[in-house]
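During the reporting period the student researcher (J.K.) took over the structure-prediction task from the postdoctoral fellow and processed the backlog of single-chain submissions. One of the processed entries is reproduced below for the supervisory committee.
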Amino acid sequence: MAIKSKRLEEWEGFTGIAVVQQGQETEAFRSEIKLAFRQMLYLAQELDDFSEQKEVYGISIHNIEDGLTHYSVLPVEQKYPELKEPLEWIEVPAHTYFVAEHIQGTDLNESYHEMAEAIREKKYKPYITANNPIFDPLPFKLEVYSRDDNQVVSVEIRIPVIKELDRY
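J.K. obtained the following structure tokens:
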């Protein structure tokens, strides 16, 4: 078992600043994502919101065959007039999410597999849009990293879902 505390949750949307990476899912790309997080945190240090934030977000959209678009995100309370390159604004809409806590030390892919099963069991399905092709059973993934003194202490996974309609 790689997840715990499974639940459905209504979640408010938020505004954030992000560093965006797009590419094939490889070990090198995962290293680029880690660097993007560090870059985003470094560039965000001078923003008023920075010292208050104890969570950062990793948002993956599987919109490329064998790849994805990844957003390393810091939520903010206000929109700043200018952002340093390569920071971008991101708006995450309110939605219903299937939420679970990833158990540290277990395989993240196992967590996603268990979440896909639990979503089906609850008669929900992952949210998809007509704008994005589907290259993954969970096309939108949001990981919430809680941090303390720049150390990740927990990872919560959120998958946007919709209720499956009964078929007659």
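The committee noted the following: Residues 27-44 form the longest helix (18 residues).
J.K. will present the remaining backlog at the next meeting.
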